[in-house]
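Sequence only, no structure available. Ideas?
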Amino acid sequence: MTKTLAFVLYPGITPLDLVGPLQVLSALAQVDPSFEVVVVGQDLGPLDTDTPLKLTPSHTFDQVPEPFALVVPGGTEPTLAALANEPLLSWIRRAARTAEVVGSVCTGSLILGAAGLLDGCQATTHWGFRDLLAKFGATPVAERWVEAGPVITAAGVSAGIDMALHLVERLAGEQTARTVQLFIEYDPQPPLGSIDWRSADLDFFRPHAQAMVESALADHPALLARLTT
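Reply:
I predicted one. Tokens follow.
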């Protein structure tokens, strides 16, 4: 039986949140044809991202009611606005009832929280929005990715690739995961080295995050109050 791995597309996402893990799991589907990868949206029209690139779903929500796994990408203000997107949240809730894996990248975890799927779970997201996870009943953790039963959340943007490789290992074994990593030549060597989290000034971003939340949810006062009080 084919296992469908569904990536969720909605307006304004950060493309790498979707395309990074999508590439990893598409490689899995090439290695193991028992998996298929789809990108689902409310309809099949092209959607803006937070770059000049537009993206188009391969399937509608109605065409993929019960995926084996779903992954929700994140972004900035448009993702915060999606916390009030009921058609999106409704499909995620419905799909999560039977899915064996419910994943997110970056602030996509806040959408899982808004759908009611993180209550009592450890979860992570982009460092600038991590504290908001507690507003949805989750326990925020500063990890590259974290599992809580069927739920697996990744931190900001590029962490989705790491999460997806872990997911390949979980679904198909270590050797397949290593093969996929080799296929995509994933061997990060950033020119400035790794991030020194101990010296990073993370507080500078707080006013910007607050402003994005207030702008995105200005028409949803109850949800805005939940996230800001």
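The CA atoms of residues 46 and 65 lie 21 Å apart.
Hope that gets you unstuck.
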